Amino acid sequence: MIIYLGADHRGFQLKESLEKFLKEQGYEVIDAGNGDLDENDDYPDFAKLAARAVSQDPINRRGILICGSGAGVDIVANKFKGVRSVLAANVEQAKMSRNDDDTNILSLAAEFTNEDEAKEIAKAWLETPFSGEEKHKRRLEKINEIEENN
Hints:
This protein is an alpha/beta fold. The chain contains six helices and five strands, in the order E-H-E-H-E-H-E-H-E-H-H.
């Protein structure tokens, strides 16, 4: 599994920390930017790069996006076909999003999530499989229909 990371200036330090952590955990990580701390950058630029990569293979690729509130990168990610991004504030929410909704992008709020929490959330999210329960498959199919028809 390849994990694409993206963050603006507000999420830059957390992204750098998560990248190191994920590599230590044995994951293949691709940094979609920003590669440098730039106070004038814009979160859509980096969220777009990571979400586009995930949308090209939404089953085998994952993304983790970070901005100040997490909301901006989450909104951008969910514009891409096949992407199901969750803005998770805690481990249980991250697990539930994987189990029930088969999310493939995790959005984090750098202003409200410290480094240790972010690592715990990311680890739980990456390790939690989709349940495959019929009711969850049915709901995902309805989401796919909406995506196809709008």
